[in-house]
Amino acid sequence: MKHTVLSAFFATAIAGPALAEDAICYNCPPQWADWASMLEAIDETLDIQMPHDNKNSGQTLSQLLAERASPVADVAYYGVTTGIKAGTEGVVQPYKPEGFDDIPEGLKDPEGKWFAIHYGTLGLFVNVDALAGAPVPQCWADLAKPEYRGMVGYLDPSSAFVGYAGAVAVNLANGGDLGNFDPAIEYFNTLGENDPIVPKQTSYARVVSGEIPILFDYDFNAYRGKYEEDGNFEFVLPCEGSVRVPYVMSLVAGAPNEAAGKRVLDFILSDEGQAIWTNAYLQPARPVDLPAEVAEKFLPASDYERAVAVDYAEMERAQAAFGERYLNDVK
Fold first, then answer.
1. Which residues form a coiled coil (predicted)?
2. Domains observed in the chain
3. Between 123 and which of 67, 129, 230, 237 could a Cys-Cys bridge form, CB atoms 3.0 to 4.6 Å apart?
4. H or E stretch at 137
5. 271-279 and 35-46 are packed helices; what angle lies between their axes, rounded to 10 degrees?
């Protein structure tokens, strides 16, 4: 409890109160999904400054719940299951930015409590130079091989949404479904014998540095590494298959700078805002064709046929129970 209180205090202290024309976004980390470019565009286009914030999805929801009586954030970004949970918990309020109607059904709350802004596909972000001569793994099963001991990382699936999305992916790949996570538990226990690295927060820089040679991560981060960093990086969509996952945003209930928060959300769903995500190798939420110069940098469409959508509401309902089971059953 003491740790939780201190964590909440320091998170709030770091964010601090916003200035009159500024806004606070929880979980808008510059090294994730190229939020750096989006924050810069919001500053230049809207003259709204948003501090960098490195929470993960679970930490964001926890903070919103802790601050329910006196909100600090104006907008929040998280994985779709956390967005659904935030809506049911009442810590966000309905808002439909311009472009909301273009978002496909199932990827938005009908009232506007949350809505998708972009998609990613789960796979392996690999620093090839850090593999010490081992081949680039091609399948989820490969990661348990001795040559990858101490090289594999995945974000804590009991806290970080990308960690949970990775668990859903390996579970489906091994014959499970959203009602049966036995294959995922077995997989993580097997992987646990190979000394994996399990951080709680975004670890892009740790892959780039070679500290984590192989990370369960989204294609957009891997492509960013491949095309924008010094080094040899690859994205692998595992042979057994994977999942496509939307990320969503919300307007916080009682946002102290609500007008600025609405302007930010309007911009993110605008044509200009959605185009920024494509430059960061993300599929935008509003249906548009990727620019040719971006599309050619992706794996072939035939590879992406192995990535499936799931029932995201059902995925949300299963998340808490899986997180508890992971903590209890994975050694």
1. none
2. 21-119+246-302 (3.40.190.10), 120-244+306-329 (3.40.190.10)
3. 237
4. none
5. 150
